[in-house]
Amino acid sequence: MAMAKSAVIFLFLVMMGLCVVSNSMALVYKVGDNEGWSSLGHVDYAKWASTKNFHVGDALLFEYNQMYHSVLQVSHQDFLSCNTTSPIAVYFSGEDLITLGSADNFYYLCGVPGHCQAGQKVGIKVTPISPFPSASLSPTPSVSPSSYGSSPESTSTGPVLHFNIKPWMLVSILAFNSCLWSSFSKEV
């Protein structure tokens, strides 16, 4: 009977581990996809962002040649005017991974003179994680050029761990706990 108890506990721990791993996976979006962060490929970053659904905990990967580009996180107003004089954050490694730590709008542009004016800028709308993905009937659009106006400025934070427990997982866990406790109570 001790063997059965150990097997049940082991199975429970494995199941819980799988739930945590499968539900804490955030996505990493390479900005500009194959073209990356550049002013040469004529990437339409607004169009690129509009095809994505960004959620809290996801990350943006800016890949670029650091000799010719940089990434500045800026306010909405500075984004609109391509003002690089007062950035919220500055990135210049050439492989910048920025975690989206809150549901908000975030604005990025290249700090090299003329690049923002040439279109090297992107606005990102981050939405909260829904515990019930099917509750949303339509995807939430990313920030588009016509909607750059209505959000407060914010900064991204460090890594965020999130759990998105699905209803079927909760039922499974509760059922498993019920079986586990009933087997323990029979022995006592």
TrEMBL record:
Q: Which residues form the Phytocyanin domain?
A: 27-128
What residue ranges carry the coiled-coil annotation? none
Query: One cellular component GO annotation, for this chain's record?
Result: plasma membrane
User: Is Phosphoprotein found in the keyword set?
Assistant: no
Which GO-annotated molecular functions does the record name? electron transfer activity; metal ion binding
Keywords per UniProt: Copper, Electron transport, Glycoprotein, Metal-binding, Signal, Transport
Signal sequence segment: 1-26
PROSITE patterns registered for this protein in UniProt: PHYTOCYANIN
Whether Plastid counts among this entry's keywords is no
* Matches recorded under SUPFAM superfamilies: Cupredoxins (SSF49503)
Which protein is depicted? Phytocyanin domain-containing protein
Please name the source species.
Answer: Fagus sylvatica (Beechnut)
What's the source species' lineage? Answer: Eukaryota, Viridiplantae, Streptophyta, Embryophyta, Tracheophyta
